[in-house]
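[step 3/7] inverse_fold.run input=structure_tokens len=435
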């Protein structure tokens, strides 16, 4: 029988996700449905190390980029569902709260440095943040310094960059001088397939949401006004018009294309986050050769702005798993955030800033860039996109951004982006939350 089950699991893995786990044993097991494809190898290695150390079977399955919600929905109803999954914040929690075990009385919760990193549902601690990250515009210091030394460069130092207008002047001047600099464009390609479009329909969209929230003195809404969408268009146009490829071709570009263009020195600027620092970037550029700028959209007082900093990574333990599996999963998480192997993996290998008492300091230079802005008194931009009412809203905005790029960037096409942003928000909110 066991040989048949093993064969069946191999067969299922050949065609998709395998949730085969030892069901006949009374011992607890761990099944983590991982959200972050870029850290799959590290989680696989960590799960293997934990199993070798404790004997507890620990399985990590990583959802493909852009498919997490669908994958979780499919896996959670199986006979052996994930015992550990994640949500992206209060809005993400809304659809999964009944599956979230209360972590308030666990050793994992006790390891938090601040209660602000707990995701609460009434009196219940439904989730715990495990990674505090920052995103902005990553830049190649060596190539930028080459630009600054050009006799006719319009900008001579990053000290002159204090908002959208000065940044735009620099970007367009770099694009005009790309042949002299030996690059293909100021920006990497804005790939709009599922491996890359989240950088724009989620992360770039964070800026107009954040500034509207600040303007309205709110932290979420059932209806967005879109009052900062002119700035959203301005930065999107800047990306499209000063990139390694023509705007019409971005639908065929991927996240790997953008990453390789940056790491190979074909572009100076690359919108991404602290998680982009990996072995390839370290090997090709080196930690002394990368930095990160804020994303500017022309908002008032943006010279005081820092990087976009927050979390959409909250661990949740499946309350509908068996008692043994719940205990095994919480024990695993405690090991991850306290053991030498676990804390080293989070900080040194995955590049996370983690809000736990025994967390190690990361060597990630992009994290250092975020810390430098804080030290200089700049205000971090909150991750307001975690309040987006649903994935369909992101998909609608992403499709409209792509159509705008491919269709000649007309006012009529931008009106469709506005419609997806504003009307799509209310429609999605009402559909998901009964407005």
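[step 3/7] decode complete -> sequence:
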């Amino acid at each position: 029988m066991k040989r048949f089950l093993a064969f069946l699991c191999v067969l299922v893995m050949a065609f998709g996700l395998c949730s085969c786990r030892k069901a006949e044993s009374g011992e607890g097991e761990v099944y983590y449905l991982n959200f972050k494809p870029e850290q799959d190898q590290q989680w696989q290695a960590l799960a293997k190390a934990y199993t070798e150390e404790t004997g507890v079977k620990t399985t990590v399955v990583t959802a493909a980029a852009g498919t997490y919600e669908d994958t979780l929905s499919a896996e959670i109803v199986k006979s052996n569902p994930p015992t550990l999954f994640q949500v992206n914040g209060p809005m993400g929690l809304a659809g999964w709260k009944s599956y979230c075990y209360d972590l308030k009385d666990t050793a994992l919760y006790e390891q938090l440095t601040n209660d602000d990193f707990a995701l609460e549902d009434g009196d219940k601690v439904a989730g715990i943040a495990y990674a505090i990250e920052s995103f902005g515009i990553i830049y190649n210091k060596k190539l930028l310094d080459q630009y600054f030394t050009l006799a006719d460069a319009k900008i001579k130092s990053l000290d002159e960059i204090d908002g959208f207008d000065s940044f735009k002047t620099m970007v367009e001047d770099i694009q005009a001088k790309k042949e002299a600099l030996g690059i293909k464009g100021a920006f990497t390609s804005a790939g709009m397939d599922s491996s890359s479009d989240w950088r724009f329909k989620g992360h770039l969209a964070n800026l107009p949401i954040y500034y509207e929230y600040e303007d309205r003195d709110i932290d979420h809404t059932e209806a967005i006004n879109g009052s900062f969408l002119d700035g959203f268009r301005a930065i999107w146009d800047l990306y499209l018009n000063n990139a390694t490829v023509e705007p019409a071709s971005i639908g065929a570009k991927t996240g790997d294309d953008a990453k390789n263009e940056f790491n190979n020195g074909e572009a100076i600027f690359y919108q991404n986050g602290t998680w982009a620092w990996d072995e390839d970037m370290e090997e090709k550029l080196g930690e002394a050769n990368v930095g990160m700028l804020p994303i500017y959209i022309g908002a008032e007082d943006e010279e005081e702005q820092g990087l976009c900093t927050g979390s959409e990574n909250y661990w949740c333990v499946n309350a509908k798993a068996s008692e043994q599996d719940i205990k095994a999963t919480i024990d695993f998480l405690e090991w991850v955030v306290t053991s030498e192997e676990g804390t080293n993996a989070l900080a040194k290998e995955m590049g996370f800033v983690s809000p736990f008492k025994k967390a190690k300091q990361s060597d990630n230079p992009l994290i250092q860039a975020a810390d430098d802005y804080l030290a200089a008194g700049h205000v971090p931009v909150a991750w307001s996109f975690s309040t987006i009412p649903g994935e369909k809203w992101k998909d609608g905005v992403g499709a409209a951004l792509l159509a705008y790029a491919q269709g000649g960037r007309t006012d009529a096409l931008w009106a469709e982006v506005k419609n997806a942003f504003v009307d799509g928000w209310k429609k999605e909110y009402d559909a998901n939350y009964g407005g």
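[step 4/7] annotate
The first helix runs from residue 2 to 15.
The chain has a mean pLDDT of 92.
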